[in-house]
């Protein structure tokens, strides 16, 4: 694979940045990958594991001289990082991010960037419930979508170069405007996470989460909620605070549907329930056909994973 950028700076060294570092190295996509993390502890871990070619103590030092700077911090921290790196960014540099929300990140970052710097936000739709520099792996993006949001950049070559990077890291690439991205993600990711958090919270309120029977039989569905509900609290707090409108819109529709199903159950309306579940089952089939999940029993988990 050919080198796409001379020097890539990863600001924040958690799951997404460390996976990017591995994927970039796997395919030789940059002359140099450098990084910065907020805490001394994360920087030491990243240095010890040789995650990047160089790890700096400040975001500005990492950004300086890089032709691509990727902000890989929680959505609520994007603005302060942008303010810190802005003075060292030269004209022609591309700044991107991997935040799970796009409109709020654009509003927070764009006003601070100097003229001549290209801002091309992106969002890899790939993740796990794990965080930090040791949680990343090169294959995280393989076969997953990365949404590039070129709203603010009219230089097609700049956008294409970033898309090429994501493709070379294993992703499929699509483009969307920021508001559409936020609505789509509210449906596919943000609201489902909120529902998972709620379901696990309800079980906890009922004092059932640690019941041996709940744990023993959790493979029946509850376990998948607990995995999602173990996702990083800071990241998800920021997602909901920054994608408020779209999440509330989808949550409102969800609540309405839930009431309709509740009534169908109370009234014994089996036809309604059957029709509804038939429709949702076909959605599951189309996700498998699109290659976004496996039809293997138990979601393809090996037996040892299910314990
Ligand atoms: P992560 O593993 O928790 O890592 C976050 C990194 O950001 C850490 O290096 C952390 O530094 C740093 N950081 C946290 N708060 C900061 C602050 N106030 N100022 C400067 N640095 C700060 O997170 P991640 O999962 O990689 O997520 C990073 C971004 O990717 C988020 O915007 C998230 O929305 C997005 N994203 C996540 C997923 C996912 O499934 N996890 C998927 C797609 C996109 P320390 O380690 O020193 O605290």
Features:
6-phosphogluconate dehydrogenase C-terminal fold; globular; binds NADP nicotinamide-adenine-dinucleotide phosphate; disordered C terminus; alpha/beta; 2 domains
Set down the secondary structure blueprint.
Blueprint: E1 5-11, H1 15-27, E2 30-36, H2 40-48, E3 54-56, H3 59-63, E4 68-71, H4 78-85, E5 94-97, H5 103-109, E6 118-119, E7 122-124, E8 145-148, H6 156-168, E9 172-175, H7 178-205, H8 212-216, H9 222-228, H10 233-242, H11 244-267, H12 270-289
Parallel strand pairs: 1-2, 1-4, 2-3, 4-5, 5-6, 8-9
Antiparallel strand pairs: 7-8
The protein binds NADP nicotinamide-adenine-dinucleotide phosphate.
NADP nicotinamide-adenine-dinucleotide phosphate binds at residues 12-17, 37-39, 42, 72-75, 77, 81, 98-100, 123-124, 127, 131-132, 232, 235.
Structure commentary:
- This protein is 49% helix and 12% strand.
- It folds into 2 domains: 5-176, 3-Layer(aba) Sandwich (Rossmann fold), CATH 3.40.50; 180-306, 6-phosphogluconate dehydrogenase C-terminal fold, CATH 1.10.3660.10.
- α7 packs across α9 (222-228) and α7 packs across α11 (244-267).
- By secondary structure, the chain is an alpha/beta fold.
- It has helices at 15-27, 40-48, 59-63, 78-85, 103-109, 156-168, 178-205, 212-216, 222-228, 233-242, 244-267, 270-289; strands at residues 5-11, 30-36, 54-56, 68-71, 94-97, 118-119, 122-124, 145-148, 172-175.
- NADP nicotinamide-adenine-dinucleotide phosphate is lined by residues 12-17, 37-39, 42, 72-75, 77, 81, 98-100, 123-124, 127, 131-132, 232, 235.
